[in-house]
Recover the amino acids of this structure.
């Protein structure tokens, strides 16, 4: 067993443990922290499998940006949403997951190609970038359009509407005009009306 | 000389199954989104391993697109969760009954 194999199994163990802990936590904050460990392990795995640029992206985008975004959204909720339990159907759901896993494992190991030992190779970031913008530039542009659409949708969803406030508490005082409420970061703001 | 391809796929399958269970069984919408992220992570591992196996860079390019799509998906999903929390005061999907009469 080579050194690479040992590193792979250790990394795999770390990823599996961290992911398993993450999906079973009751507090979303703890889940996110475990998930950061899992994504960092995945980044190291990518580095070993010859994708250094993707490893860096994994750390920056997944473990950095996305997880921090989720953390901030969790902090936006006033009441910590940890008391929600499992669905009553969690048993069948776990069973389905196990069946899926068994079928996948059988399929993978039935294939003779699965025992092929991977040969080490590295895609240098320079070659990767050239390849990407040479052959898949259109897909990159489409992804940028996707980001634009997502941005517009998020701004539209995040906009605060006054009608919701009236809907929410019909008996209370009507909410103040729009201009005054700008820049409010609190989601579920209870106002004291004198 | 690293490991057999099947072992990497096994790791990806295990992570994917965990994400699937998390997606289906949890009742917290944020945990549901985290389950989707875990599944995408598993798909990325499988793609990188396949790219190394056949020495093709297309697999790595696809992982890049997976990263982009999952970033867009998680931000939009979280915006939806926040918006629906504002309307109903809960992030339990069982309690969304505005459309019922």
């Amino acid at each position: 067993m080579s050194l690479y194999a040992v590193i792979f199994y250790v990394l795999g163990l770390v990823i599996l443990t961290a992911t398993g802990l993450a999906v079973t936590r009751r507090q979303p904050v703890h889940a996110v922290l475990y998930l950061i460990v899992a994504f960092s392990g995945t980044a190291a795995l990518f580095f070993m499998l010859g994708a250094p640029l993707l490893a860096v992206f994994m750390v920056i985008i997944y473990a950095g940006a996305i997880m921090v975004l989720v953390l901030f959204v969790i902090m936006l909720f006033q009441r910590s949403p940890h008391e929600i339990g499992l669905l009553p159907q969690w048993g069948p759901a776990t069973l389905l997951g196990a069946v899926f896993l068994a079928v996948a494992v059988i399929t993978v190991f039935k294939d003779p190609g699965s025992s092929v030992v991977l040969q080490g190779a590295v895609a240098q970031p320079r070659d990767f970038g050239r390849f990407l913008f040479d052959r898949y530039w259109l897909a990159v542009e489409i992804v940028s359009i996707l980001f634009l659409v997502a941005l517009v949708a998020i701004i539209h969803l995040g906009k605060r509407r006054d009608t919701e406030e009236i809907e929410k508490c019909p008996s209370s005082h009507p909410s103040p005009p729009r201009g005054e409420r700008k820049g409010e970061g609190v989601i579920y703001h209870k106002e004291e009306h004198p | 000389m690293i490991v057999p391809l099947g072992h990497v796929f096994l790791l990806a399958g295990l992570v994917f199954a965990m994400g699937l269970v998390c997606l289906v069984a949890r009742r917290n919408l944020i945990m549901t989104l985290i389950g989707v992220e875990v599944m995408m992570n598993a798909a990325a591992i499988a793609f990188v391993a396949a790219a190394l196996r056949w020495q093709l860079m297309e697999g790595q390019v696809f992982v890049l697109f997976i990263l982009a799509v999952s970033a867009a998906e998680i931000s939009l999903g979280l915006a939806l969760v926040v918006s629906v929390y504002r309307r109903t005061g809960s992030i339990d999907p069982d309690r969304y009954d505005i459309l019922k009469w």
Notes: DSSP finds three helices and no strands in chain B.
